[in-house]
Write a structure and sequence with these properties.
By secondary structure, the chain is mostly beta strands. The chain has a domain of 231 residues. Helices cover 12% and strands 39% of the residues. The strands form 4 sheets. An 8-stranded antiparallel beta sheet has the order 6-8-9-10-19-15-14-13. It has a 5-stranded antiparallel beta sheet with strand order 4-3-2-1-7, with no helix packed on it. A 4-stranded antiparallel beta sheet has the order 5-12-17-16, with no helix packed on it. Strand 8 and strand 9 form a beta hairpin. The radius of gyration is 21 Å and the shape is globular.
Length: 332
């Protein structure tokens, strides 16, 4: 016998479900000529600045933006988590390493000419040039932006094609996640990327998040500060600090399918927070590993290398137990 449930008894459950879904902040994209703004819950979260805007020159004289970046990046309540320089001047902020801009993805020692994409901020080439938007779709609680870019060497020849997907997720009132899935594809010749610590997927954080200001790195093994996490493998690293008495932080999670997992970390106390799976030889030497070995990535024509990370921007305290639970959920 099939039992019939009166529709009136189902209504409260349906209403609660609909209300919970509609309460999720909306993720929206607003496209301009030089950038795509990402809005979450009616507030600007970040901008994907893919091409330099000549009407808005960088504050730092003689410095060029030679790659797409996410800048500025805000916490769920609107606190700026990224350094302002070289876009704008912020009193008391460090002005070292002008190529550290927002959230960015690049690497040194790429290709036959050893092109230095990572550190270049003063010459037009090498550069990572935006080609087009592949997909852009907002929605309740989540939105996806996918782009195509070319890694152009000093000879003005494209060495690699980058296909990137960024999924922006409003997880809750105190957390925003951004999932990055990035493929680097070699075109008509093999491209080798030699091991170097100068890379790869990075965030230059605001001054108040640096170790000097009280920020603390923590990795999956429970090691802390730059001296505990730099040059070591780990599934995740978290950087947490305080702003106006409130705890805020950034965590980067490395997906197990990403190239050379678990990844190495180029995380510096002065504010460069970077995942670098391709710095193996440099890191092993620095950590005095017996018989250090290079990873020596080579991408054959038509093949791709995958780099996959989740960035968590959060407010409150995120300890090791909480972070490990979030990593396990991401790694499934």
């Amino acid at each position: 016998m099939i039992r019939k449930i009166p529709i009136l008894l189902l209504l409260p459950t349906l209403i609660v479900g609909i209300t919970a879904w509609s309460a999720q902040p909306k993720v929206e994209f607003k496209e301009g000529k030089y950038q795509i703004d990402v809005w979450i819950g009616g507030k600007l979260f970040t901008s994907y600045r893919h091409t330099p805007d000549p009407s808005q020159p960088l504050f730092a004289k003689g410095i060029l933006q030679t790659k797409p970046v996410l800048y500025p990046v805000h916490s769920p309540s609107g606190v700026v988590l990224t350094r302002g320089y070289p876009f704008v001047q912020v009193p008391g902020e460090a002005t070292d390493h002008p190529h550290h801009i927002g959230i960015y993805f690049t690497m040194d020692n790429v290709g036959p000419d050893n092109d230095g994409f990572w550190g270049n901020s003063k010459a037009p080439l090498p550069a990572i040039r935006h080609v087009k938007v592949l997909r852009m779709k907002g929605g309740q609680g989540s939105g996806t932006l996918a782009t195509l870019s070319n890694w152009v060497g000093k000879s003005d020849k494209t060495l690699l094609e980058e296909e990137r997907e960024m999924v922006f997720q409003a997880v809750g009132a105190n957390q925003i996640d951004v999932d990055f899935t990035i493929y680097l594809k070699a075109l008509d010749r093999e491209i080798a990327i030699a091991d170097t610590k100068e890379g790869m997927f990075a965030i230059r954080v605001a001054q108040w998040l640096t170790e000097k200001a009280g920020g603390r790195y923590l990795n999956a093994e429970g090691e802390e500060l730059e001296k505990g996490v730099w040059g070591k493998r780990s599934n995740w690293v978290r950087l947490q600090g305080e702003k106006d008495g409130a705890k805020l932080g950034i965590a980067i999670l490395n997906h197990p399918t990403s190239t050379n997992s678990p990844t190495y970390w180029h995380a510096r106390g002065y504010g460069c927070f970077s995942v670098n799976p391709l710095g193996q030889l440099d890191f092993q030497k620095a950590q005095k590993v017996a018989d250090p070995k290079p990873f020596d990535l080579k991408i054959k024509p038509g093949e791709k290398a995958l780099f996959k990370y989740r960035v968590i921007l959060y407010e409150g305290d995120m300890d090791r137990v909480k972070m490990e639970a979030k990593y396990k959920a991401y790694a499934k």
